[in-house]
Design brief:
By secondary structure, this protein is an alpha/beta fold. It has helices spanning about 5-20, 55-60, 65-75, 90-100, 105-110, 120-125, 130-135, 165-175, 180-185, 190-210, 240-245, 250-275, 290-295, 310-315, 340-350, 375-380, and strands spanning about 45-50, 80, 140-145, 160, 215-225, 280-285, 320, 360-365, 370-375. Strand 8 and strand 9 (about 370-375) form a beta hairpin.
Length: about 375
Protein backbone atom coordinates (compact mmCIF):
# COMPACT_ATOMS: atom_id res chain seq x y z
CA UNK A 1 0.00 0.00 0.00
CA UNK A 2 2.83 2.38 0.77
CA UNK A 3 3.97 2.13 -2.83
CA UNK A 4 0.54 3.16 -4.07
CA UNK A 5 0.58 6.43 -2.13
CA UNK A 6 3.18 8.14 -4.36
CA UNK A 7 1.15 7.07 -7.42
CA UNK A 8 -1.98 8.64 -5.95
CA UNK A 9 -0.07 11.80 -5.10
CA UNK A 10 1.31 11.94 -8.64
CA UNK A 11 -2.17 11.54 -10.16
CA UNK A 12 -3.57 14.26 -7.89
CA UNK A 13 -0.69 16.58 -8.77
CA UNK A 14 -1.16 16.19 -12.54
CA UNK A 15 -4.92 16.68 -12.27
CA UNK A 16 -4.37 19.83 -10.23
CA UNK A 17 -1.86 21.20 -12.76
CA UNK A 18 -4.22 20.63 -15.66
CA UNK A 19 -7.10 22.11 -13.75
CA UNK A 20 -5.30 25.37 -12.97
CA UNK A 21 -3.53 26.89 -10.01
CA UNK A 22 -4.44 25.58 -6.59
CA UNK A 23 -5.80 27.83 -3.88
CA UNK A 24 -3.02 29.43 -1.92
CA UNK A 25 -0.44 28.74 -4.63
CA UNK A 26 2.55 31.09 -4.56
CA UNK A 27 3.08 33.27 -7.65
CA UNK A 28 5.58 31.96 -10.18
CA UNK A 29 9.16 33.13 -9.87
CA UNK A 30 9.88 36.35 -11.73
CA UNK A 31 11.58 36.15 -15.13
CA UNK A 32 14.54 38.57 -15.34
CA UNK A 33 14.92 41.23 -18.03
CA UNK A 34 17.80 40.95 -20.48
CA UNK A 35 19.66 44.10 -21.55
CA UNK A 36 21.76 42.35 -24.18
CA UNK A 37 21.89 39.08 -26.09
CA UNK A 38 25.05 37.09 -26.75
CA UNK A 39 25.80 36.73 -30.43
CA UNK A 40 26.33 34.04 -31.41
CA UNK A 41 24.31 32.53 -28.58
CA UNK A 42 25.97 29.64 -26.70
CA UNK A 43 24.18 26.45 -25.77
CA UNK A 44 23.58 26.23 -22.02
CA UNK A 45 23.82 22.87 -20.25
CA UNK A 46 22.59 22.37 -16.68
CA UNK A 47 23.72 18.86 -15.75
CA UNK A 48 22.60 17.63 -12.33
CA UNK A 49 24.26 14.53 -10.90
CA UNK A 50 21.97 13.34 -8.14
CA UNK A 51 23.60 12.78 -4.71
CA UNK A 52 27.04 13.73 -5.97
CA UNK A 53 28.82 14.95 -2.84
CA UNK A 54 31.81 17.21 -2.39
CA UNK A 55 35.39 15.97 -2.44
CA UNK A 56 35.38 15.91 1.37
CA UNK A 57 32.27 13.72 1.48
CA UNK A 58 33.54 11.37 -1.20
CA UNK A 59 36.80 10.95 0.69
CA UNK A 60 34.80 9.69 3.70
CA UNK A 61 33.29 7.03 1.42
CA UNK A 62 36.74 6.02 0.22
CA UNK A 63 36.40 7.63 -3.23
CA UNK A 64 39.47 9.45 -4.54
CA UNK A 65 37.92 12.30 -6.52
CA UNK A 66 40.94 14.62 -6.81
CA UNK A 67 41.84 13.42 -10.31
CA UNK A 68 38.31 14.10 -11.62
CA UNK A 69 38.22 17.63 -10.19
CA UNK A 70 41.65 18.36 -11.62
CA UNK A 71 40.46 17.07 -15.00
CA UNK A 72 37.58 19.57 -14.86
CA UNK A 73 40.00 22.40 -14.03
CA UNK A 74 42.27 21.45 -16.94
CA UNK A 75 39.27 21.80 -19.23
CA UNK A 76 38.59 25.32 -17.95
CA UNK A 77 36.02 24.68 -15.22
CA UNK A 78 35.84 26.63 -12.00
CA UNK A 79 35.23 24.18 -9.13
CA UNK A 80 33.48 25.73 -6.12
CA UNK A 81 35.22 23.78 -3.35
CA UNK A 82 33.02 24.93 -0.46
CA UNK A 83 29.55 24.70 -2.04
CA UNK A 84 26.46 23.52 -0.17
CA UNK A 85 23.04 22.68 -1.55
CA UNK A 86 20.33 25.14 -0.53
CA UNK A 87 17.97 22.34 0.59
CA UNK A 88 18.35 18.72 1.71
CA UNK A 89 16.31 16.98 -0.98
CA UNK A 90 16.16 16.98 -4.77
CA UNK A 91 12.75 18.64 -5.17
CA UNK A 92 13.34 21.87 -3.21
CA UNK A 93 17.00 21.97 -4.25
CA UNK A 94 16.21 21.96 -7.98
CA UNK A 95 13.12 24.13 -7.54
CA UNK A 96 15.35 26.72 -5.91
CA UNK A 97 18.20 26.58 -8.45
CA UNK A 98 15.93 26.61 -11.53
CA UNK A 99 13.92 29.55 -10.18
CA UNK A 100 16.93 31.44 -8.75
CA UNK A 101 15.22 32.05 -5.43
CA UNK A 102 14.58 30.51 -2.03
CA UNK A 103 11.21 28.86 -1.53
CA UNK A 104 9.86 30.99 1.32
CA UNK A 105 6.82 32.08 -0.72
CA UNK A 106 6.07 28.48 -1.74
CA UNK A 107 6.25 27.33 1.88
CA UNK A 108 4.07 30.19 3.09
CA UNK A 109 1.42 29.47 0.47
CA UNK A 110 1.40 25.73 1.10
CA UNK A 111 1.39 26.10 4.89
CA UNK A 112 3.91 24.80 7.36
CA UNK A 113 1.80 21.73 8.19
CA UNK A 114 1.11 20.76 4.57
CA UNK A 115 2.13 17.26 3.46
CA UNK A 116 1.66 18.10 -0.24
CA UNK A 117 4.91 18.24 -2.23
CA UNK A 118 2.93 19.44 -5.28
CA UNK A 119 3.75 23.17 -4.95
CA UNK A 120 7.46 22.34 -5.07
CA UNK A 121 7.02 19.93 -7.98
CA UNK A 122 5.22 22.68 -9.91
CA UNK A 123 8.40 24.76 -9.71
CA UNK A 124 10.28 21.92 -11.42
CA UNK A 125 7.92 21.93 -14.39
CA UNK A 126 7.39 25.66 -14.95
CA UNK A 127 10.60 27.38 -13.90
CA UNK A 128 12.11 30.82 -14.40
CA UNK A 129 15.34 29.62 -16.04
CA UNK A 130 13.45 27.81 -18.78
CA UNK A 131 10.96 30.65 -19.31
CA UNK A 132 13.74 33.24 -19.54
CA UNK A 133 15.83 31.29 -22.04
CA UNK A 134 12.83 30.45 -24.22
CA UNK A 135 12.05 34.18 -24.30
CA UNK A 136 15.60 34.69 -25.59
CA UNK A 137 15.06 32.34 -28.53
CA UNK A 138 16.42 29.15 -26.96
CA UNK A 139 14.81 25.76 -27.42
CA UNK A 140 14.46 23.74 -24.23
CA UNK A 141 15.72 20.15 -24.18
CA UNK A 142 14.84 18.17 -21.06
CA UNK A 143 16.72 14.93 -20.32
CA UNK A 144 14.49 13.34 -17.72
CA UNK A 145 15.08 10.79 -14.96
CA UNK A 146 13.03 7.86 -13.70
CA UNK A 147 11.78 10.10 -10.85
CA UNK A 148 8.40 11.30 -12.10
CA UNK A 149 8.70 15.04 -11.16
CA UNK A 150 11.62 15.35 -13.61
CA UNK A 151 10.66 12.47 -15.90
CA UNK A 152 9.49 14.97 -18.50
CA UNK A 153 8.79 18.69 -18.72
CA UNK A 154 5.53 20.12 -20.03
CA UNK A 155 7.23 23.22 -21.42
CA UNK A 156 10.24 21.58 -23.07
CA UNK A 157 10.54 21.56 -26.84
CA UNK A 158 12.02 18.08 -26.59
CA UNK A 159 11.99 15.46 -23.84
CA UNK A 160 14.69 12.76 -23.70
CA UNK A 161 13.86 9.59 -21.78
CA UNK A 162 13.20 5.89 -22.18
CA UNK A 163 9.71 4.45 -22.20
CA UNK A 164 9.25 1.97 -19.39
CA UNK A 165 6.75 0.83 -16.82
CA UNK A 166 5.98 3.51 -14.21
CA UNK A 167 8.72 3.51 -11.57
CA UNK A 168 6.25 2.82 -8.74
CA UNK A 169 5.06 -0.37 -10.47
CA UNK A 170 8.63 -1.44 -11.14
CA UNK A 171 9.53 -0.84 -7.50
CA UNK A 172 6.53 -2.97 -6.53
CA UNK A 173 7.96 -5.75 -8.66
CA UNK A 174 11.32 -5.36 -6.93
CA UNK A 175 9.77 -5.98 -3.52
CA UNK A 176 7.39 -8.84 -4.36
CA UNK A 177 7.48 -12.33 -5.86
CA UNK A 178 7.14 -10.73 -9.30
CA UNK A 179 10.88 -10.10 -9.53
CA UNK A 180 12.06 -13.76 -9.34
CA UNK A 181 9.42 -14.61 -11.96
CA UNK A 182 10.60 -11.77 -14.19
CA UNK A 183 14.20 -12.89 -13.75
CA UNK A 184 13.36 -16.50 -14.55
CA UNK A 185 11.44 -15.52 -17.68
CA UNK A 186 14.02 -12.94 -18.71
CA UNK A 187 11.54 -10.05 -18.73
CA UNK A 188 13.98 -7.15 -18.75
CA UNK A 189 11.18 -4.58 -18.89
CA UNK A 190 10.22 -5.49 -15.31
CA UNK A 191 13.77 -5.27 -14.01
CA UNK A 192 13.92 -1.87 -12.31
CA UNK A 193 17.72 -1.90 -11.99
CA UNK A 194 18.34 -3.01 -15.57
CA UNK A 195 15.99 -0.30 -16.82
CA UNK A 196 17.88 2.33 -14.82
CA UNK A 197 21.20 1.08 -16.24
CA UNK A 198 19.78 1.52 -19.74
CA UNK A 199 18.24 4.92 -18.98
CA UNK A 200 21.44 6.54 -17.69
CA UNK A 201 23.45 5.31 -20.66
CA UNK A 202 20.71 6.55 -23.00
CA UNK A 203 20.79 10.00 -21.37
CA UNK A 204 24.54 10.30 -21.84
CA UNK A 205 24.35 9.02 -25.42
CA UNK A 206 21.65 11.53 -26.37
CA UNK A 207 23.38 14.45 -24.65
CA UNK A 208 26.52 13.73 -26.66
CA UNK A 209 24.55 14.27 -29.90
CA UNK A 210 23.20 17.70 -28.97
CA UNK A 211 26.16 19.92 -30.01
CA UNK A 212 25.63 18.81 -33.60
CA UNK A 213 21.96 19.87 -33.63
CA UNK A 214 20.73 23.35 -34.49
CA UNK A 215 20.81 25.77 -31.54
CA UNK A 216 20.73 27.71 -29.38
CA UNK A 217 19.60 25.20 -26.77
CA UNK A 218 19.00 25.16 -23.04
CA UNK A 219 19.55 21.60 -21.83
CA UNK A 220 18.49 20.48 -18.37
CA UNK A 221 19.66 16.95 -17.62
CA UNK A 222 18.76 15.24 -14.34
CA UNK A 223 20.85 12.08 -14.06
CA UNK A 224 20.25 9.76 -11.10
CA UNK A 225 23.92 8.92 -10.60
CA UNK A 226 25.68 8.27 -8.29
CA UNK A 227 22.20 8.02 -6.72
CA UNK A 228 20.89 4.53 -5.99
CA UNK A 229 20.11 2.02 -7.38
CA UNK A 230 23.74 1.03 -7.75
CA UNK A 231 23.85 -0.52 -11.21
CA UNK A 232 27.26 0.50 -12.61
CA UNK A 233 30.73 -0.91 -12.29
CA UNK A 234 33.46 1.68 -12.96
CA UNK A 235 33.73 0.50 -16.57
CA UNK A 236 29.97 0.96 -17.10
CA UNK A 237 29.05 -2.73 -17.04
CA UNK A 238 25.93 -3.82 -15.18
CA UNK A 239 26.16 -4.87 -11.52
CA UNK A 240 24.17 -8.01 -10.73
CA UNK A 241 22.25 -8.37 -7.48
CA UNK A 242 24.73 -10.96 -6.23
CA UNK A 243 27.68 -8.67 -6.93
CA UNK A 244 25.88 -5.80 -5.21
CA UNK A 245 25.19 -7.87 -2.10
CA UNK A 246 28.85 -8.77 -1.67
CA UNK A 247 30.00 -5.16 -1.65
CA UNK A 248 29.68 -2.46 0.98
CA UNK A 249 27.53 0.65 0.56
CA UNK A 250 30.70 2.74 0.21
CA UNK A 251 32.16 0.46 -2.47
CA UNK A 252 28.95 0.48 -4.50
CA UNK A 253 28.70 4.26 -4.22
CA UNK A 254 32.35 4.77 -5.24
CA UNK A 255 31.99 2.44 -8.21
CA UNK A 256 29.02 4.46 -9.43
CA UNK A 257 30.98 7.69 -8.89
CA UNK A 258 33.85 6.28 -10.95
CA UNK A 259 31.49 5.43 -13.83
CA UNK A 260 29.85 8.85 -13.58
CA UNK A 261 33.19 10.65 -13.69
CA UNK A 262 34.29 8.76 -16.78
CA UNK A 263 31.08 9.42 -18.71
CA UNK A 264 30.88 13.06 -17.60
CA UNK A 265 34.40 13.81 -18.87
CA UNK A 266 33.61 12.03 -22.13
CA UNK A 267 30.43 14.10 -22.45
CA UNK A 268 32.20 17.37 -21.66
CA UNK A 269 34.93 16.68 -24.22
CA UNK A 270 32.28 16.06 -26.89
CA UNK A 271 30.32 19.17 -25.90
CA UNK A 272 33.45 21.32 -26.12
CA UNK A 273 34.73 19.78 -29.34
CA UNK A 274 31.39 19.61 -31.14
CA UNK A 275 29.95 23.04 -30.33
CA UNK A 276 30.51 25.81 -32.89
CA UNK A 277 30.13 28.33 -30.07
CA UNK A 278 31.76 27.40 -26.74
CA UNK A 279 28.90 26.23 -24.49
CA UNK A 280 28.05 27.26 -20.95
CA UNK A 281 28.09 24.21 -18.65
CA UNK A 282 26.84 24.01 -15.07
CA UNK A 283 27.73 20.69 -13.43
CA UNK A 284 26.18 20.20 -10.00
CA UNK A 285 25.04 17.80 -7.37
CA UNK A 286 21.58 18.61 -6.03
CA UNK A 287 22.32 16.96 -2.66
CA UNK A 288 24.91 14.69 -1.10
CA UNK A 289 24.47 11.02 -0.17
CA UNK A 290 22.21 10.00 2.69
CA UNK A 291 23.74 9.47 6.12
CA UNK A 292 23.42 5.95 7.55
CA UNK A 293 20.85 6.88 10.21
CA UNK A 294 18.60 8.54 7.63
CA UNK A 295 18.61 5.51 5.32
CA UNK A 296 17.26 3.41 8.20
CA UNK A 297 14.16 5.62 8.64
CA UNK A 298 13.72 7.90 5.64
CA UNK A 299 10.10 8.92 6.16
CA UNK A 300 10.42 9.91 9.81
CA UNK A 301 14.06 10.83 10.31
CA UNK A 302 14.09 14.10 12.26
CA UNK A 303 16.69 16.42 10.73
CA UNK A 304 16.48 18.60 13.86
CA UNK A 305 18.34 15.77 15.60
CA UNK A 306 20.97 15.36 12.88
CA UNK A 307 24.60 15.87 13.82
CA UNK A 308 26.69 18.54 12.06
CA UNK A 309 28.60 15.76 10.25
CA UNK A 310 25.34 14.20 9.01
CA UNK A 311 24.14 17.56 7.72
CA UNK A 312 27.47 18.24 6.01
CA UNK A 313 27.36 14.83 4.33
CA UNK A 314 23.87 15.60 3.01
CA UNK A 315 24.43 19.14 1.71
CA UNK A 316 28.06 19.37 0.56
CA UNK A 317 28.02 19.00 -3.22
CA UNK A 318 29.94 19.05 -6.46
CA UNK A 319 29.52 22.46 -8.10
CA UNK A 320 31.52 23.33 -11.23
CA UNK A 321 31.14 26.01 -13.92
CA UNK A 322 32.38 26.38 -17.47
CA UNK A 323 31.78 30.02 -18.42
CA UNK A 324 33.63 30.77 -21.67
CA UNK A 325 34.77 34.35 -22.20
CA UNK A 326 33.42 35.46 -18.80
CA UNK A 327 35.18 36.95 -15.82
CA UNK A 328 35.84 34.16 -13.32
CA UNK A 329 35.75 36.74 -10.52
CA UNK A 330 31.96 36.31 -10.56
CA UNK A 331 32.48 32.90 -8.95
CA UNK A 332 33.73 32.03 -5.48
CA UNK A 333 34.29 28.81 -3.46
CA UNK A 334 31.03 28.93 -1.46
CA UNK A 335 28.65 29.85 -4.28
CA UNK A 336 25.48 27.75 -4.05
CA UNK A 337 23.03 26.60 -6.75
CA UNK A 338 20.46 29.33 -6.03
CA UNK A 339 22.95 31.80 -7.50
CA UNK A 340 24.11 29.78 -10.51
CA UNK A 341 21.70 31.15 -13.10
CA UNK A 342 21.86 34.60 -11.51
CA UNK A 343 25.55 34.63 -12.39
CA UNK A 344 25.07 33.18 -15.89
CA UNK A 345 22.22 35.47 -16.87
CA UNK A 346 23.99 38.58 -15.58
CA UNK A 347 27.28 37.74 -17.32
CA UNK A 348 25.83 36.81 -20.70
CA UNK A 349 22.44 38.57 -20.88
CA UNK A 350 23.03 41.66 -18.75
CA UNK A 351 20.19 40.92 -16.31
CA UNK A 352 22.14 42.47 -13.41
CA UNK A 353 20.59 40.06 -10.94
CA UNK A 354 22.03 40.57 -7.46
CA UNK A 355 23.46 37.51 -5.76
CA UNK A 356 21.51 36.12 -2.83
CA UNK A 357 23.17 35.20 0.44
CA UNK A 358 24.19 31.53 0.17
CA UNK A 359 22.07 29.69 2.73
CA UNK A 360 21.16 26.08 3.49
CA UNK A 361 17.84 24.86 4.90
CA UNK A 362 16.76 21.55 6.39
CA UNK A 363 13.22 20.36 7.09
CA UNK A 364 11.97 18.40 10.10
CA UNK A 365 11.12 15.21 8.18
CA UNK A 366 9.83 14.07 4.80
CA UNK A 367 6.22 14.07 6.02
CA UNK A 368 6.51 17.80 6.65
CA UNK A 369 8.42 19.25 3.68
CA UNK A 370 7.77 22.93 4.53
CA UNK A 371 9.09 22.93 8.09
CA UNK A 372 12.33 24.56 6.95
CA UNK A 373 14.94 25.78 9.38
CA UNK A 374 18.34 27.24 8.54
CA UNK A 375 21.49 25.18 9.09
CA UNK A 376 24.01 27.39 7.28
CA UNK A 377 26.06 28.11 10.37
CA UNK A 378 26.00 24.42 11.34
CA UNK A 379 27.44 23.12 8.07
CA UNK A 380 29.81 26.01 7.30
CA UNK A 381 33.48 25.43 8.14
CA UNK A 382 34.58 26.92 11.44
Amino acid sequence: CALLIPSAQAAFYHLRIRGGAAAGQAPAAAVPQATRHPSPAPDIYYIVLDRYGSQETLTKYGCDNAEFLEALRRRGFYVATASWSNYLKTAPSLASSLNMEYLDAVGAAAGRNSIDWGPVFERLDDHAAGRFLKSQGYSYVHAGSLWWPTERNSYANRNINLLSFPSNLMLLGETTLLQPVADALGIAALDFRRQQWRRIRHQFDELEKLPFQHGPKFVFAHLLVPHEPYVFNPDGSFVSRSELAHRSEAENYCNQVAFTNRRVLQLIDLLLAGSKVPPIILLQGDEGPFPVRYRKNERDFDWRQATPDELREKVSILNAYYLPGADAKALFPSISPVNSFRVVFSLYFGTNLPLLTDRTFAHENDRHPYTWFEVTSTVAPE
